[in-house]
Each structure stands twice: as C-alpha cells, then as structure tokens.
Amino acid sequence: MPGERTGPVAGVVLAAGTSTRMGENKLLFELEGEPAVRRAVARATAAALDPVIVVLGHEADRILPALAGLGCRSVLNPDYARGINSSLKCGIAALPTAAVAAVVLLADMPFVTAEMIATLVKRYRATTAPLVISDYAGVNAPPMLYDRTLLGELQAMEGEGCGKQVVKRHRTEASVVAWPASALADFDLPEDYQRMRALLPAG
C-alpha cells in the first residue's frame, strides 16, 4: 500500500564469527586505516540504515571498542558457535517494530559500499517487492533486503542458510540489483587479506 514503505529500514551486521580459517579475529584487521568491522558498520550507517544492529559473539569485548562513536546498537549472540544462522536470528529478534524492512550485511565484505546499500533501500521503496537481492554475476549474496513480512520466516527457518532459503522461496517476487563479481570478495584466509590490502587504499 502507498506510504507503507516510508518508514525506517534497519541494518543487521553479522560480526559474531570465530574467524577459524584466519587463525585470529579478522574483523579487527585493518582495512583503509580502520578495523574491518568498524569500516563495515560505518558504511551501513552512512547508507542511513536506522537502526544499525551489530550482532557480536566471538571476542565481543574486543570488537565493541572498535565500534565506539558509530551510533550503532550491539547485541550479543550467546550461541554464535552454532553458526551464522543463529546470529541472523539474533539480529532479527532485536529489530524495532518501527522498522519496515532490514538489510542484512556481513562484516567481512570490504567491497560493499554505502552506495550499494542505499541502492537496495531505494529499490525497495520504489517497488512492491518483499525482497531486494544483490546479484554478483549470477551469485546471490549479502547485502540482502527483507521486508518486515519476511522476518518471521527468517526466524522460523531451520538448518543451514536461513536467508538463502527465504530468498529461494520468494525469488520470483524479488527485485534484483546487479553488482560486479569483484564486489563479492570476502577474506577468510591470510592470503585473502593481503590481496585486499593491496587493492584498497592504505587509509
């Protein structure tokens, strides 16, 4: 209905993982002169997501200081060791009732920009689609925007890939925004991080 999409769109930044393959907490690694997690959350806030909820878990006490002054809200996922789905559900549960939709982001995708996030929101407001999907040359990955009507499904899904299950179920109703395949990159291994540092400004 007209007017229903003028309310706030929230952000859920997933930052609870254990960085097992990296060997240490990758979200504290420096990219462009600041910790990767701070850089990701700052882009979510710059895109005018409101509120921005950061889901913490592993080494939350070390991550929190890196978020100082950003105006985000952090929530702790006590079950973070169970995987990303538990963090997604934790973030969705923390959303305010005023939010008409939520953009789900990962803290370890350095090439996702504030402009990309804002484009998803703009597309959402301009359509009636309950889902706005990021497509990287045929690969669907975050950030993804879910209308409030889909949040209950995200909470109810079991097994791996709750977000992907909801995307698959509503794929024909979704609006798709295309991005370059290069923007999909994340960093799980030391060599990934070194490659990204070489591609990004020093800060």
Q: Which helices and strands occur, and which strands form pairs?
A:
Layout: E1 9-15, E2 30-31, E3 34-35, H1 36-46, E4 52-56, H2 60-63, E5 73-76, H3 84-93, E6 101-106, H4 114-126, E7 131-136, E8 139-140, E9 144-147, H5 148-156, H6 162-169, E10 175-179, H7 190-199
Parallel strand pairs: 1-4, 1-6, 4-5, 7-10
Antiparallel strand pairs: 2-3, 6-9, 7-8, 7-9
Helix pairs in contact: 5-6
CATH architecture: Alpha-Beta Complex
Low-confidence stretches: none
Q: Indicate the structural class.
A: alpha/beta
- Amino- and carboxy-terminal Cα gap: 45 Å
CATH superfamily: Spore Coat Polysaccharide Biosynthesis Protein SpsA, Chain A
Number of strands: 10
The total tally of domains equals 1
**What fold name stands as the CATH topology?**
Spore Coat Polysaccharide Biosynthesis Protein SpsA, Chain A
Rounded radius of gyration (Å): 16 Å
Strand content: 15-25%
Query: What can be said about the biggest beta sheet?
Result: 8 strands, mixed
Average pLDDT, rounded to a whole number, is 91
Share in helix = 25-40%
Tertiary shape: globular
Number of helices: 7
According to CATH, what is the class? Alpha Beta
Order of helices and strands: EEEHEHEHEHEEEHHEH
